[in-house]
Design a protein that fits this description.
The complex is a heterotetramer of chains A (311), B (684), C (285) and D (560). Chain C is an all-alpha fold and 285 residues long. Chain C contains eleven helices and no strands. The two termini of chain C are 27 Å apart. Helix content of chain D is 29%, strand content 23%. Classes of the chains: A mainly alpha (311), B alpha/beta (684), C mainly alpha (285), D alpha+beta (560). Chains in contact: A-B, A-C, A-D, B-C, C-D. Chain B: It is a peripheral membrane protein.
């Protein structure tokens, strides 16, 4: 118990480090973005000299870089993400209002991808049949097709032609279907292949032979014994999954005109909205770091052998 | 078998697998019967088809396999006619299967209790609510202490022995009439092995028919009533266990028995063949004639023309007739009549053999040449004739080493071990898993620094040196690893592998490098044809030969051999042990020979060190230590090993395996700490 | 049992299946298009003929024309160069950086390892596309910068893998035995550790070329790719989607080009992976 | 924009005259196209049916504002949204007349520097505050307050000195010098009157929660999704320019932000929204063919989308090269193919709906590749390199055209590629570089651009002064990006802004347009237009003179 507490404390400390690091990277990167930040912020409008100087001072750009970085860190550690340059709102509010739609999209896509992939994997693992070939081909196709293209095609067909789903935005369930499906398609292929490989590896294990020798049926063998082992590599992928979901959200939210973190980040980066970009970086890093901890805890649940959690 | 219908009847069983190169026959016409309360052992080397045979009996040979038989019946029911659903009703309920290595044979993420309950659930034997309790009962029946606790634990939390018991409990949960035990004791330490065999014997005494699959003749000798020897998918000889082990008639059986290293064989060659070319026991593509002919020293033309018929050997009186041609010492050491030894669990019950006398068992061999005398074992390089110079090459002076465990506490692996290794001698390092023998070896190799104490090389500091100071002398101590595949860079050819060792610092780069490599290969019985191959393209025996050649390349003073033969089949093991003997004879290197196998140690070593829990318990001349052990642990160890039994009555009968092991805190107890990763001590 | 079958299947040289053969051919063709597009498409990809705008596929214009009357087929062929450049270049950068970081982390002691791994953690905590966006914002949109951006954003993953492989191999028997021959650390790392850590990654790298191509086209789709009028599949698709209801060809063919290319690369990569796994005993990924 | 009238206050009457001209132009420019069959049994929507109150309208717009404080933000969409939330002192009809609104009447002092407004009684803001002179003062002071960092409203109030509250119903706005556009500016939504109580709030709240007295109240704004307005039921002070009195017909308006062209159009056809702007030109044929939709368009006044050429840098410092570029572009074919005839090609820098447009330029500088080649030969660009581009002294004829990625919309990137391809045909290596705004602004301020492409939406020809007068340099907040110092243009444009003589003004603007083309100072490309698609249900949609949509008179026909 003591070791678990110690482990958790260490992991949380590291998580804070990662979050600060991510914020620093975002801060640094935006310092290197070319162009005068004040001009960029004005979005191409030519301000008078007075307005320009005033804005510059208010944003602290008349201070030397180390001072600005120090203030930035101080703010961050106080939990203050600052005020968005372009949206004139506190970053925390902006992210707060945009986070949920993205999370909703990501969860829906993940759930969909997981269920479809698990079904594909469980039904086709270790079987040499035409159905498996079809499934594999479909997975390859899904992995190899750019999500934005799929999105455009789905949108054109289901929304423009058939009017089955809303074309843009929409917080309704129907509005979530196409974006989630598009985002899921990129994942299904990977999930199914990883799970199938895991299943096949598990199905080759002696314990599966033992289980069969006890008279356990094929379905029970797959669901009760093999699937759990196949989930372990899935858990390993979690970092990649979160990355693809959040990164994919940028494209999906743009194509489907959805509100959300991805789209707001893309515009924030383009508009050099430093506080918003760093804010998103902080949030993404926090999600990533907490998720990693959660995943390591999950490992222990899925596979009790993992007493010492691997980093 | 005449008096009643057998429980299990197998006639002309054939199994083949579809491969890219066409069907590959793994089992080609195997026939046997099994009666209730009887134990039939199928013996063979890897690839002989023995496991496939067992799995065919539960319909689990796998997809893409074709199974046929003239007769495959369980208690009169035709198994060949079963559909998948019917098979499920047979598996676990009427036929149980126990596999080697319970760590991987029990689902590692489920509790032991759940695994056992699964059998109960599959066959609806016990209502759902009563299953956990029944699982605990079953564990108790399998002599698992604290069964309620164990049922809640997962396989990795149990010691190897308990795990195997749990696995057996799960296989027996459905109270099957037949138990298929496929290498049930193979990965276990000897003392634990003995306990598992006792457990199986007890079940047999209860009337369970056991089909024992093993490569280990000693295990077979301890449990089986009858033995069938398989080679390349066919049974080449079968008979009562005593008959067969005492008077083997088929050349293959004879080769196998001769290959077992033991005290008798000191100073003799174990293998029939010196070179590595001998055909493996893997089923070869269909060809007429005896499969063994290619490797058989007695083969003649007709052997290669057609399959030899079964020839009844009869029941020779002990010591009479043809048995004189057989390497008798082996039989004496090995084939201990069960009635004499009597596993404790079976002591009260009927002797063995399904109620029929052992004498009634037919002894047959599929060979025309069973009457031919076996070539006398070629004399090996004489042992003990080498006068050991008093030059001490390696001096290990009270070394201590501990590792940090996962919980952060330090766990000692080696505790104050001291010994010396002299020029030209072979010192055995004997111990069970976790005894610290590998850690000791790594300190000798200079791969680990002792926490305390020192290793000296030719009287000069070795362990305390910095790496750069050690480097010029590195070549003096070389390693022959247990797993040569892992020890070879997978991208390297044999030529490059050995070439790398030749260029070791402190050696002049050999002028004619390639010539030297071929020369080294010759020393270990390989020719230049292996030069361009990679490790994965070599057979297990060839790999180990290359490993030895490579270790010899820098002209070392010392070879550290870390379980160099434990992963090999017995006939290959015999060849490799012969190579070691030749090498030492030719080069006079000192060897530190690590093994858990007393037979191997006995055969190979001049002196032996016995380790347990990081401590050196006893050391001395191998004859002295193994014949008259001073330490209780050594005694227990010897008692637990079937192959070095009290043929000469030297081990007190009172300290049989069953009594001695637990009393010494061996087996179960000693295994708890190092449960995971059997056979390998804690490594960094 | 099955081991018998598998062994003989694994030992024998794998035959090249028809799918793999076709894919390899396609990859060669795409490489040809990237190197000498003129061989496959005569028409100038940037020659605008507004009169011929938005034509459907025909004998004269196999894939039709875009809204400026440019030949879509020719643009698709010429687009191979940018896509392949991004795919290969980004993977190369990722591999190089990944190896450097991974090897340093695995061999230079705990402190270096800890520092480097925290840095990769930080980079990994950015979703890949966002990191790429940030880099492009820093460097400005162009195919070279997109390449750098994608390379940088996938480098941490490679670094992790290299480190993991290297750590596993460092414990492998052949590295330990190499030490007993008296080989120095540097030599062991260079001769054994690096090549063996790298080999499995090379196949993975081939597979990641496909992913990089998609990432590159995603950046282009968002308007951060090469400058106009350079033909690039992602930006062609972005333009074409506005005309999907009028002229399907404009958006469909560039999309197909991406998909077919990535599929072909993946099929070839996986085939290599399977061949390769057969003879590589250390660590899977 | 800074529109300054110099030279004293004798010219106040000219303002009215200007409005009249404007009105005439506006009349011709607004065209409502009924959808469906051409036999036109359908009368234009607003003509017959009786308006019905009720229903909510959803309007999908391409742009999303970053801040909807009219005193701060300059973007068009902010104006469109704020028009519904804020009332102005005066209103303008679609025909351009200035009519009373919150001011019932006004007078201008003889020197043109003081405007006295009588204010309407009984007006209350959405937060309950009563409208009075203090509100006007607070609004104008807010706009010019440096703290506000106004990007547009302050410029509308150029020469603003102060607002004097004479009594609650009477105010005087005092200017430092006459401003001919003052009344027009005051009618702009960017000078809509804000609740003085709300102006006490932080900039953030002003940006996100506007409080005015308009026909609609602000409800919510979800970034990247929509902005919702609800009917102000208490509204009884409709502008005189409007068709009806009392509250608006619509119960509410939802502005949906759909930047993707295809999606926006799809949202209209699928019925998800009622009205969209920036209909993709490619979809207009489909829109017209759709019996349940209507299509409306209005050309935008101001500077047409043009390329302003930098005469201060090689190679465009050579007038022959500039003329060659002007003549090398086959604009008719290009604009037709990109915009399907929905946008017109431009003949002048000013769009046809701009006050002062010179119609005589039309047809005077047709596409002539031969002439372009001849001019380039004359200019000494006679050699060709391996890629077919002209060279002189081993230097390629390269012209760099940079733009900010965000400015690259409405098919402009495609037009650019067409221009590029045409230029290549005469041997000019025109490089079109779309870059991020940061880099682009860096280039703008460094002045190292060869070409700047863009447009301005403004009512009259004074925009030419903003773009070309030598005192309108970029550091002074002007639009003369390349620091052009042309005495002829300076004279023509400055005189036009100070003269009281309408004829002189018209002539000067015409001469200036002519001069720009003669000297190829710019390449006019397309006339901007607001292309609107709407469901047939939507009635009473109106374009303002600016070509923006207004919704006060809009209603939804439940029968359709």
């Amino acid at each position: 118990m003591r070791s678990t507490t110690w482990w958790l404390a260490r992991r949380l400390a590291l998580a804070v480090l990662v979050v600060v690091g991510a914020a620093t990277v975002a801060f640094g990167a935006l310092q290197l973005v070319p162009g005068d930040p004040v001009h960029v912020m004005m979005g191409g409008a030519a301000p008078s000299e007075e307005v320009y100087e005033r804005t510059r001072h208010e944003l602290g750009y008349d201070q030397p870089l180390p001072v600005r970085y120090g203030e930035f860190l101080g703010q961050l550690l106080r939990g203050d993400l600052g005020q968005s340059y372009q949206l004139h709102q506190p970053v925390a509010d902006v992210i707060g209002s945009q986070l949920w739609p993205t999370v909703q999209l990501a969860l829906a896509a993940f759930g969909l991808a997981f269920v479809v992939a698990a079904a594909l994997a469980v039904t086709t693992a270790g079987r040499r049949s035409g159905w498996r070939r079809v499934a594999s081909a479909a997975e390859l196709l899904m992995i190899s097709t750019p999500g934005f293209w799929v999105g455009v095609l789905l949108l054109t067909f289901f929304s423009f032609r058939l009017h089955l789903f809303p074309v843009a935005g929409g917080d309704s369930l129907a509005g979530l279907v196409l974006p989630a499906a598009t985002l899921a398609i990129g994942l299904i292929g990977v999930f199914a292949q990883v799970m199938r490989e895991g299943l096949e590896r598990a199905l080759e294990q002696p314990f599966v032979l033992s289980a069969r020798a006890r008279g356990t049926g094929e379905t029970a063998v797959r669901l009760r014994h093999a699937l759990r082992h196949a989930l372990i590599p899935m858990v390993t992928l979690s970092g990649w999954i979160v990355g693809s979901l959040l990164g994919g959200a940028v494209l999906i939210e743009t194509i489907f005109s959805r509100e959300g973190l991805g789209r707001i980040t893309a515009t924030a980066i383009a508009g050099r909205d430093l506080p918003l970009v760093t804010g998103v970086a902080v949030v993404a890093a926090t999600i990533f770091a907490l998720l990693n901890i959660a995943v390591d805890l999950l490992y222990r649940v899925i596979d009790p052998r993992m007493k010492e959690v691997v980093r | 078998m005449a008096d009643s219908d057998p429980l299990l009847a197998v006639d002309d069983l054939r199994v083949s697998f579809a491969t890219r190169g066409g069907p590959l026959a793994a089992v080609r016409g195997v026939s046997f019967t099994l009666a209730a309360g009887e134990c039939l052992a199928i013996v063979g080397e890897s690839g002989s088809g023995k496991s496939v045979t067992a799995r065919a009996l539960v319909g689990l040979v796998g997809a893409g396999a074709a199974v046929s038989a003239r007769r495959l019946e369980l208690a009169g029911q035709d198994l060949l006619a079963l559909g998948e659903r019917d098979w499920r009703r047979v598996r676990g309920r009427r036929v149980g299967l126990v596999l080697q290595d319970a760590l991987s044979s029990l689902d590692p993420v489920r509790t032991v209790g759940a695994e056992i309950a699964e059998t109960l659930g599959n066959h609806r034997l016990v209502p759902r609510s009563a299953r956990p309790a029944r699982a605990v009962e079953l564990l108790a029946e399998a002599s698992v202490p604290e069964p309620a606790l164990r049922a809640r634990q997962r396989p990795f939390e149990l010691s190897g022995g308990l795990r195997q018991r749990a696995l057996i409990a799960s296989a027996l949960a459905g109270e099957p009439a037949v138990l298929l035990a496929d290498e049930p004791t193979t990965a276990l330490d000897v003392s634990v092995q003995a306990q598992i065999l006792d457990l199986l014997a007890a079940r047999r005494a209860d009337g369970v028919a056991i089909l024992l699959i093993s490569h280990d003749l000693a295990v077979v000798g301890r449990l089986a009533d009858r033995v069938a020897v398989m080679y390349a998918g066919t049974i080449v000889e079968e008979g009562g266990v005593d008959d067969l082990l005492r008077s083997p008639r088929h050349p293959y059986t004879r080769e196998l028995l001769a290959a077992v290293p033991s005290a008798h064989a000191r100073g003799t060659r174990l293998a029939v063949h010196r070179d590595a070319a001998a055909a493996p026991a893997v089923a070869a593509p269909d060809a007429a004639g005896c499969r063994y002919a290619a490797r058989c020293p007695l083969a003649e033309d007709r052997c290669r023309m057609a399959d030899p018929p079964a020839i009844d050997v009869g029941h020779p009186a002990p010591g009479a007739g043809l048995s004189a041609d057989v390497p008798r010492p082996a039989a004496v050491d090995l084939g201990l009549p069960a009635v004499e030894k009597g596993p404790p669990a079976a002591a009260a019950g009927p002797a063995r053999g399904g109620g029929t006398a052992a004498a009634a068992v037919a002894h047959r061999a599929w060979c025309w040449r069973i009457d031919e005398p076996w070539p006398a074992p070629p004399a090996g390089p004489a042992r003990g004739r080498v006068q050991h110079a008093d030059d001490v090459v390696i001096e290990v002076d009270t070394v201590w080493k501990s590792f940090r465990g996962p919980d952060g506490s330090r766990r000692p692996a080696v505790r104050g071990v001291s010994f010396q290794l002299r020029v030209g001698e072979t010192v055995g390092l004997l111990g069970e898993s976790g005894s610290g023998k590998s850690t000791t070896a790594e300190m000798v190799l200079g791969l680990l620094e002792p926490d305390e104490g020192a290793v000296l090389l030719r009287g000069r500091p070795w362990s305390r040196l910095g790496e750069s100071a050690r480097r010029p002398d590195r070549h003096r101590i070389q390693l022959v690893p247990q797993d040569p595949l892992g020890a070879f860079d997978p991208r390297y050819t044999v030529e490059r592998l050995i070439g790398e060792a030749l260029r070791a610092p402190g050696r002049r780069a050999a002028a004619r490098q390639r010539g030297r490599i071929v020369e080294l290969l010759g020393l270990v019985g390989l020719d230049a044809s292996v030069l361009p191959r990679r490790a994965t393209q070599l057979s297990g025996g060839q790999r180990q030969r290359v490993a030895i050649a490579r270790a010899l390349a820098p002209e070392p003073d010392v070879l550290v051999c870390d379980e160099p033969v434990s992963a090999l089949d017995v006939s290959i093991q015999a060849q490799i042990l012969d190579v070691f003997a030749d090498v030492q004879d030719a080069l006079g290197v000192a060897m530190l020979f690590i093994s858990h196998d007393l037979g191997v140690i006995y055969h190979t070593c001049d002196r032996v060190l016995v380790m347990r829990d990081g401590e050196l318990l006893e050391q001395g001349d191998v004859e002295r230590v193994l014949r008259a052990p001073a330490h209780d642990y050594t005694r227990a160890l010897l008692a637990a090993v079937p192959r070095l039994g009290p043929a000469t009555g030297q081990v007190p009968a009172g300290s049989g395996a069953g009594d001695a092991a637990p009393a010494d805190g061996l087996g179960v107890g000693s295994n708890v700490g190092f449960g995971v990763g059997s056979g390998v001590g804690p490594r960094r | 049992m099955a081991g018998v079958a598998r062994r003989s299947a694994g030992r024998g040289r794998r035959r090249i299946g028809p799918g793999v053969a076709v894919s390899a051919l396609l990859v060669a063709l795409i490489a040809l298009a990237a190197l000498w597009p003129g061989l496959l498409a005569r028409a100038d990809p940037n020659a605008a003929e507004p009169v011929d705008a938005l034509l459907g596929p025909s004998g004269a214009h196999w894939f039709g024309t875009d809204q400026l009357g440019r030949d879509v087929y020719s643009r698709v062929v010429h687009g191979a160069r940018v896509s392949l450049f991004i795919g290969v270049g980004a993977t190369g950068i990722a591999l190089l950086l990944g190896c450097l970081i991974g090897m340093l982390a695995a061999t230079c002691g705990r402190l270096v390892d800890e520092i480097l791994m925290r840095i990769t953690d930080v980079l990994l905590s950015f979703p890949g596309l966002l990191l790429a966006l940030l880099v492009v914002a820093m460097l400005g949109p162009s195919s070279t910068n997109a390449t750098i951006a994608i390379g940088l954003s996938s480098a941490p993953g490679f670094a992790r893998l290299v480190r993991g492989e290297a750590l596993a191999i460092r414990e492998a028997g052949y590295v330990r035995t190499a030490v007993t021959f008296g080989a120095g650390r540097a030599r062991v790392y260079l001769r054994h550790l690096l090549p063996n850590a790298l080999t499995p990654l090379l196949v993975l790298a081939l597979l990641s070329v496909g992913a990089a191509i998609i990432a590159g086209s995603s950046l282009s789709y968002l308007g951060l790719g090469p400058r106009v009028p350079t033909a690039e599949w992602g930006s062609m698709l972005a333009q074409g989607k506005d005309f999907l209801t009028i002229s399907w060809a404009m958006a469909v063919f560039p999309g197909l080009a991406i998909t077919v290319t990535v599929i072909a690369i993946n099929i070839v990569g996986r085939d290599l992976q399977r061949r390769f796994e057969g003879r590589h005993p250390v660590g899977r990924f | 924009m800074n529109i300054r009238i110099q030279g004293g206050g004798r010219h106040a009457r000219a303002i009215r005259r200007t409005s009249t001209v404007l009105a005439a132009l506006a009349l011709t420019s607004v065209t409502a196209v009924a959808c469906g069959s051409d036999d036109s049994s359908d009368t234009p929507a607003a003509a017959s049916a009786t308006p019905v109150a009720g229903g909510k309208l959803t309007y999908a717009t391409v742009q999303e504002p970053s801040c909807i404080d009219p005193g701060y933000d300059p973007s068009t969409v902010t104006g469109v949204i704020d028009r519904n939330i804020f009332d102005s002192l005066v209103s303008q009809t679609a025909t351009g007349e200035t009519k009373p609104w919150l001011a019932t009447s006004w007078t201008v002092s003889p020197d043109g520097k003081t405007y006295r407004f009588s204010l309407r009684d009984g007006v209350t803001f959405h937060d309950g505050t009563a409208f009075d002179g203090a509100a006007v003062k607070a609004t104008f002071d807010h706009a010019v307050d440096p703290e506000t960092k106004s990007l547009y409203a302050a410029a509308l109030l150029s020469a603003y000195q102060e607002t004097r509250v004479i009594d609650p119903r009477t105010i005087e706005v005092v200017l430092t010098r006459p401003n001919a556009s003052f009344l027009q500016s005051v009618g702009s939504p960017f000078l809509g009157i804000q609740s003085p109580a709300s102006l006490e709030r932080s900039a953030e709240e002003l940006c996100t929660k506007p409080v005015g007295s308009g026909a609609f109240t602000f409800v919510s704004w979800t970034k990247n999704r929509d902005l919702v307005l609800a009917k102000n039921p208490a509204y009884q002070w409709a502008p005189d320019a409007a068709d009806h009195d009392g509250p608006a017909y619509l119960d509410g308006i939802t502005f949906q932000f759909i930047s993707d062209d295809t999606a926006r159009f799809g949202a209209l056809t699928s019925g998800q929204v009622n009205v969209i702007n920036n209909v993709p030109a490619a979809n207009i044929r489909a829109l017209k063919a759709n019996g349940s939709l209507q299509y409306l368009r209005a050309d935008s006044p101001g500077l047409a989308y043009s390329l302003i050429l930098n005469t201060g840098r090689e190679p465009l410092s050579d007038v022959r090269v500039r003329r060659a570029l002007l003549r090398s572009v086959n604009l008719d074919a290009l604009v037709e193919s990109v915009y399907f005839g929905e946008y017109n090609r431009a003949w002048s820098l000013l769009s046809p709906t701009t006050i002062g447009y010179d119609k005589s330029l039309e047809g005077t500088w047709k596409f002539d590749a031969a002439l372009a080649n001849k001019l380039l030969d004359e200019a000494g660009w006679t050699q060709r390199d391996g890629d077919g581009f002209r060279t002189k002294d081993g230097k390629r004829l390269t012209i760099v055209w940079r733009t900010g990625a965000q400015l690259d919309r409405d098919g402009r990137g495609v037009v650019a590629q067409g221009v590029q391809a045409d230029a290549k045909k005469v041997g000019i290596d025109l490089q079109y570089i779309s870059e991020d705004v940061g880099t682009f602004s860096q280039h703008i301020f460094a002045g190292d651009l060869d070409i700047w492409g863009g447009n301005y939406q403004r009512p009259d020809g004074d925009i030419l002064r903003f773009a070309f007068a030598s005192d309108q340099g970029i550091t002074k907040g002007g639009g003369n990006l390349f620091g052009l110092q042309d005495p002829t243009l300076d004279r023509l444009l400055n005189e036009a802004s100070t003269t009281t003589d309408e004829a002189v003004r018209e002539k000067n603007w015409a001469d200036a347009q002519q001069y720009v083309i003669d000297n190829a100072l710019a390449v006019p490309l397309t006339v901007g237009a607001n292309l609107v698609g709407a469901s047939n249900k939507v009635q009473g949609l109106r374009f303002e003179q600016s070509s923006n949509l207004t919704f006060f008179d809009t209603w939804l026909d439940p029968t359709k």
